[in-house]
Amino acid sequence: MTHRSAFQPAWPGDLTPPLDPARLAEPHILQPEWTLLRHGAVRDHAVVVEGGRFTAVGPVDEVAAQFPSLKRLSLPRMLLMPGMIDTHHHLTQSFGKSLVFGEPSEIFRRVWVPLEGSLNAEHLYLSSKLAALEALRGGFTTVVDAGTRSDAGLDAIARAVSDAGVRCVLGLICNDRPGAETLDAAPILRRASEHLGRYDHHALVTPSLAISIPEVASDAMLHHVHRMCAEAGRIFQTHANEHLVAVERSLNACGRRPIEQLAAVGALGPAALLAHATLVTPHEIRLLADTGAAVAYNPVASAWKGNAVAPAETMATFGVRLGLGTDGTRSDGFRLLDYAEAAQRFAFGIGVGDSSCGAGWRWLDMATHDAADVAGLGDVTGEIAAGKRADFLLVDLDVPELTPSWDVTWELVRLANRDQIRAVFVEGKLRLWDGWPPDWDARALMRDIHAMAADTIAGAPIRKLHDYADAHRARHAQTVSPSGTPGA
User: Fold this and answer.
1) pTM (2 decimals)?
2) d(CA 387, CA 374)
3) Which UniProt keywords apply (predicted)?
């Protein structure tokens, strides 16, 4: 971070001039007021984007000398920062995202499995494109999709994220024990192998393999799928130690907790990305650190329907690789940063007098370059650096919430909002301007979804346990008298 004298504001108070998005499509030396680099926010830096990559990042004068023929595009009051990376998403669940409020844990059995199983290829495309649009609006330029249970195939999802313009790690579910019987492994592994090689030359899609939860796969399948990913340089995804009931089922079935079971069958290593890991023992933290496995920390999911908050700061301190994830709850990157820090403070920090809980930078790192490493894309994206793909945001700092500004990193975690995101770039291409795509009709997508969503949800065997909010209010009113005491 650039040092300033005590109480010197981060920038003076002139008004931000209008910015024409058309100019951003032209070759320029981009000169924002602030640039968020891996080691912190700096001023007086510039970047050049060519062929979808950052070809130069450095002090303004050095970059200008390297590219004398390029004009400078000054971006006062703007922060140029890496696009955030959602390390755990469910793209095909967007039609049902507001069906699960107030629901108890393990909603996948009552809502997500029935919903995803009812989706056809058109549903998959539209729901995934909607989720991709939401992600971009929230400042995410990459999403890691944990796989869908629909039999309609993954090509529709790949097409949707490509059309929306978001980078995607696309999971294929390889469960061989979804019920009481174990399925033939050969066709599952054959399909897995085909999936791993399917997107070799795709600009935005990277394949991944997934097991929904360890208990729905045989020991052999867990081992084989993890090994296939490790050998291919891809990530293996599974949900682990998320809910108490799942931990107890694992103990009953094999005498081990889920993470212990993954280690025992050879499915825990640098290729593994475990979603949630909220219920972890010190021994399991040691296993994660020693094997190099990664965890997607999903604080909003913990708040909305979880049994616990993952001890993310403790895990990171002891060497566990972590990235932030939404779990498909709400694709808002800045609110996710806030939740990530706040959840640690409420769950762990307050009781021991930790007023910092990561000092802001930890959660910003966990949303950018640490998340890229977790997603298997550390060589591709996650930071503003020469050679990396140009996935970045332009964030307006000239807002009341950041006036005056003293500590840009902390402010991004606790004060920033997604409405400050003026532009979203993926692969060097402008994907969103002021929240909307400049090259396709997002409102037409929304109209198409409105036209079909009701029938889609009605046709899925979803079982809710919690009333919609207004129905819940009416039922509550029937049991309480006007004075606030229980009625007759």
Assistant:
1) 0.93
2) 19
3) Hydrolase, Metal-binding, Zinc
